[in-house]
Amino acid sequence: MIEQQTEVQAAEQRLKMSYEEFQAWDGAAHAEWVDGEVLVFMPPLTLHQELVGFIYTLLNVYVNTLGLGQVLVAPLEMRPAPDGNAREPDVLFVCQERLHLLDKRRLAGPADLVVEVISEESVARDRVDKFYEYQEAGVQEYWLIDPRPGKERVDFYQLLPNGKFQAALPDSEGRYHAAALPGFWFKPDWLWRSPLPNPLRCMLAIAPAALRDALANDETL
Fold first, then answer.
1. Which of 141, 174, 177, 210 is deepest in the core (most CB within 10 A)?
2. Burial class of residue 5 (count of CB atoms within 10 Å of its CB; 0-12, 13-18, 19+)
Protein backbone atom coordinates (compact mmCIF):
# COMPACT_ATOMS: atom_id res chain seq x y z
CA MET A 1 0.00 0.00 0.00
CA ILE A 2 2.83 2.42 0.89
CA GLU A 3 4.51 1.69 -2.44
CA GLN A 4 1.24 2.30 -4.33
CA GLN A 5 0.63 5.61 -2.54
CA THR A 6 4.18 6.72 -3.36
CA GLU A 7 3.60 5.94 -7.05
CA VAL A 8 0.36 7.92 -7.03
CA GLN A 9 1.97 10.91 -5.34
CA ALA A 10 4.85 10.81 -7.82
CA ALA A 11 2.36 10.88 -10.71
CA GLU A 12 0.70 14.07 -9.46
CA GLN A 13 2.37 17.40 -8.74
CA ARG A 14 0.68 20.13 -6.71
CA LEU A 15 1.53 23.83 -7.06
CA LYS A 16 0.11 26.66 -4.96
CA MET A 17 -1.39 29.19 -7.33
CA SER A 18 -4.34 31.57 -7.64
CA TYR A 19 -6.83 31.06 -10.45
CA GLU A 20 -5.56 34.21 -12.14
CA GLU A 21 -2.00 32.89 -11.98
CA PHE A 22 -3.21 29.57 -13.34
CA GLN A 23 -4.73 31.35 -16.33
CA ALA A 24 -1.44 33.09 -17.09
CA TRP A 25 0.67 30.00 -16.36
CA ASP A 26 2.48 28.41 -19.28
CA GLY A 27 2.87 25.01 -17.71
CA ALA A 28 1.78 21.41 -18.27
CA ALA A 29 -0.64 20.49 -21.02
CA HIS A 30 -2.90 18.58 -18.63
CA ALA A 31 -3.57 20.29 -15.31
CA GLU A 32 -6.54 21.29 -13.14
CA TRP A 33 -6.98 24.14 -10.69
CA VAL A 34 -8.53 22.88 -7.44
CA ASP A 35 -8.91 24.76 -4.14
CA GLY A 36 -6.01 27.14 -4.75
CA GLU A 37 -3.66 24.51 -6.17
CA VAL A 38 -2.72 23.36 -9.64
CA LEU A 39 -2.75 19.59 -10.03
CA VAL A 40 -0.29 18.55 -12.74
CA PHE A 41 -0.86 15.08 -14.16
CA MET A 42 1.52 12.63 -15.77
CA PRO A 43 0.83 11.69 -19.42
CA PRO A 44 -1.91 9.03 -19.59
CA LEU A 45 -1.32 5.41 -20.58
CA THR A 46 -1.96 4.17 -24.10
CA LEU A 47 -5.13 2.29 -23.10
CA HIS A 48 -6.53 5.45 -21.49
CA GLN A 49 -6.01 7.39 -24.72
CA GLU A 50 -7.46 4.60 -26.86
CA LEU A 51 -10.65 4.57 -24.80
CA VAL A 52 -10.91 8.35 -24.79
CA GLY A 53 -10.44 8.38 -28.56
CA PHE A 54 -13.08 5.69 -29.08
CA ILE A 55 -15.70 7.41 -26.91
CA TYR A 56 -14.92 10.81 -28.42
CA THR A 57 -15.22 9.52 -31.98
CA LEU A 58 -18.44 7.68 -31.26
CA LEU A 59 -20.07 10.69 -29.61
CA ASN A 60 -18.64 13.17 -32.09
CA VAL A 61 -19.96 11.33 -35.15
CA TYR A 62 -23.43 11.05 -33.58
CA VAL A 63 -23.55 14.66 -32.37
CA ASN A 64 -22.23 16.15 -35.62
CA THR A 65 -24.47 13.98 -37.78
CA LEU A 66 -27.59 15.11 -35.95
CA GLY A 67 -26.45 18.68 -35.16
CA LEU A 68 -26.90 18.26 -31.42
CA GLY A 69 -24.03 20.43 -30.16
CA GLN A 70 -20.31 19.88 -29.69
CA VAL A 71 -18.10 17.12 -28.26
CA LEU A 72 -14.70 18.12 -26.86
CA VAL A 73 -11.71 16.26 -25.46
CA ALA A 74 -9.05 17.11 -22.87
CA PRO A 75 -7.18 19.29 -22.40
CA LEU A 76 -10.01 21.82 -22.20
CA GLU A 77 -10.99 23.69 -19.05
CA MET A 78 -14.50 23.31 -17.67
CA ARG A 79 -15.32 25.70 -14.85
CA PRO A 80 -18.92 25.02 -13.85
CA ALA A 81 -19.14 27.84 -11.28
CA PRO A 82 -17.52 31.31 -11.50
CA ASP A 83 -15.73 30.79 -8.17
CA GLY A 84 -15.33 27.01 -8.43
CA ASN A 85 -12.65 24.55 -9.46
CA ALA A 86 -11.37 24.31 -13.02
CA ARG A 87 -11.43 20.72 -14.29
CA GLU A 88 -10.36 19.06 -17.53
CA PRO A 89 -12.74 16.16 -18.24
CA ASP A 90 -11.50 13.47 -20.61
CA VAL A 91 -14.54 13.95 -22.87
CA LEU A 92 -17.47 16.34 -22.61
CA PHE A 93 -20.60 17.16 -24.59
CA VAL A 94 -22.34 20.55 -24.72
CA CYS A 95 -25.79 20.72 -26.29
CA GLN A 96 -26.63 23.21 -29.02
CA GLU A 97 -28.66 25.45 -26.70
CA ARG A 98 -25.72 25.91 -24.32
CA LEU A 99 -22.86 26.46 -26.77
CA HIS A 100 -22.82 30.14 -25.80
CA LEU A 101 -21.03 29.04 -22.61
CA LEU A 102 -18.07 27.83 -24.67
CA ASP A 103 -15.34 30.22 -25.75
CA LYS A 104 -11.84 29.74 -27.18
CA ARG A 105 -10.36 28.97 -23.74
CA ARG A 106 -12.94 27.18 -21.61
CA LEU A 107 -16.46 26.04 -20.93
CA ALA A 108 -17.86 28.52 -18.42
CA GLY A 109 -20.52 26.26 -16.98
CA PRO A 110 -21.31 22.56 -16.61
CA ALA A 111 -21.26 20.23 -19.61
CA ASP A 112 -24.38 18.20 -20.35
CA LEU A 113 -22.34 15.00 -20.38
CA VAL A 114 -18.91 14.32 -18.84
CA VAL A 115 -16.82 11.18 -19.36
CA GLU A 116 -13.83 10.34 -17.16
CA VAL A 117 -11.51 7.36 -17.76
CA ILE A 118 -10.04 6.23 -14.46
CA SER A 119 -6.32 5.66 -13.93
CA GLU A 120 -4.51 4.40 -10.84
CA GLU A 121 -3.91 7.90 -9.51
CA SER A 122 -7.37 9.27 -10.34
CA VAL A 123 -9.69 6.80 -8.57
CA ALA A 124 -10.61 9.01 -5.61
CA ARG A 125 -10.56 12.15 -7.71
CA ASP A 126 -12.97 10.74 -10.31
CA ARG A 127 -15.23 8.67 -8.06
CA VAL A 128 -15.48 11.08 -5.13
CA ASP A 129 -14.21 14.62 -5.75
CA LYS A 130 -15.48 15.05 -9.29
CA PHE A 131 -18.63 13.03 -8.65
CA TYR A 132 -19.87 15.52 -6.07
CA GLU A 133 -18.52 18.56 -7.92
CA TYR A 134 -20.28 17.56 -11.14
CA GLN A 135 -23.46 16.72 -9.25
CA GLU A 136 -23.52 20.06 -7.49
CA ALA A 137 -22.67 21.92 -10.71
CA GLY A 138 -25.62 20.39 -12.56
CA VAL A 139 -23.84 18.10 -15.04
CA GLN A 140 -26.75 16.10 -16.44
CA GLU A 141 -24.86 12.87 -17.04
CA TYR A 142 -21.58 11.41 -15.79
CA TRP A 143 -19.86 8.30 -17.17
CA LEU A 144 -17.01 6.65 -15.28
CA ILE A 145 -14.92 4.15 -17.24
CA ASP A 146 -12.51 2.03 -15.21
CA PRO A 147 -10.17 0.00 -17.47
CA ARG A 148 -7.71 -1.11 -14.80
CA PRO A 149 -6.85 -4.81 -15.08
CA GLY A 150 -9.26 -6.92 -13.05
CA LYS A 151 -11.49 -3.89 -12.31
CA GLU A 152 -13.08 -3.26 -15.69
CA ARG A 153 -16.44 -1.58 -15.22
CA VAL A 154 -18.50 1.36 -16.45
CA ASP A 155 -20.75 3.42 -14.18
CA PHE A 156 -23.42 5.70 -15.59
CA TYR A 157 -25.03 8.44 -13.52
CA GLN A 158 -27.92 10.66 -14.52
CA LEU A 159 -29.00 13.79 -12.64
CA LEU A 160 -32.45 13.63 -11.10
CA PRO A 161 -34.77 16.65 -10.67
CA ASN A 162 -33.70 16.76 -7.00
CA GLY A 163 -30.12 17.51 -8.09
CA LYS A 164 -28.70 14.11 -7.14
CA PHE A 165 -26.95 11.60 -9.38
CA GLN A 166 -28.65 8.23 -9.76
CA ALA A 167 -26.98 5.14 -11.23
CA ALA A 168 -28.46 4.00 -14.55
CA LEU A 169 -28.20 0.45 -15.85
CA PRO A 170 -27.98 -1.02 -19.36
CA ASP A 171 -31.12 -2.57 -20.84
CA SER A 172 -31.83 -6.30 -21.22
CA GLU A 173 -29.61 -6.39 -24.33
CA GLY A 174 -26.67 -4.82 -22.54
CA ARG A 175 -27.10 -1.38 -24.16
CA TYR A 176 -26.77 1.85 -22.22
CA HIS A 177 -29.13 4.63 -23.36
CA ALA A 178 -27.79 8.15 -22.82
CA ALA A 179 -30.09 10.72 -21.25
CA ALA A 180 -28.18 13.75 -22.60
CA LEU A 181 -28.23 12.43 -26.20
CA PRO A 182 -31.69 11.31 -27.34
CA GLY A 183 -31.53 8.09 -29.32
CA PHE A 184 -27.89 7.35 -28.50
CA TRP A 185 -26.88 4.03 -27.00
CA PHE A 186 -23.82 1.84 -26.85
CA LYS A 187 -22.72 -1.47 -25.37
CA PRO A 188 -20.25 -1.12 -22.47
CA ASP A 189 -18.61 -4.41 -23.44
CA TRP A 190 -17.35 -2.70 -26.61
CA LEU A 191 -14.82 -0.97 -24.35
CA TRP A 192 -13.14 -4.22 -23.33
CA ARG A 193 -12.51 -5.60 -26.80
CA SER A 194 -9.01 -5.71 -28.20
CA PRO A 195 -8.72 -4.09 -30.59
CA LEU A 196 -11.57 -1.67 -29.95
CA PRO A 197 -14.44 -1.80 -32.45
CA ASN A 198 -14.54 0.52 -35.44
CA PRO A 199 -16.58 3.53 -34.22
CA LEU A 200 -18.23 3.95 -37.63
CA ARG A 201 -19.47 0.35 -37.57
CA CYS A 202 -20.82 1.01 -34.08
CA MET A 203 -22.61 4.09 -35.40
CA LEU A 204 -24.25 2.01 -38.12
CA ALA A 205 -25.66 -0.17 -35.34
CA ILE A 206 -26.75 2.77 -33.18
CA ALA A 207 -28.41 5.02 -35.75
CA PRO A 208 -28.33 3.61 -39.29
CA ALA A 209 -31.28 5.62 -40.61
CA ALA A 210 -30.12 8.91 -39.09
CA LEU A 211 -26.60 8.39 -40.44
CA ARG A 212 -27.80 7.53 -43.94
CA ASP A 213 -30.22 10.47 -44.03
CA ALA A 214 -27.61 12.95 -42.80
CA LEU A 215 -25.06 11.82 -45.38
CA ALA A 216 -27.65 11.83 -48.15
CA ASN A 217 -28.66 15.40 -47.32
CA ASP A 218 -25.11 16.74 -46.82
CA GLU A 219 -24.59 19.16 -49.71
CA THR A 220 -20.88 19.56 -48.89
CA LEU A 221 -20.08 16.01 -50.08
1. 141
2. exposed
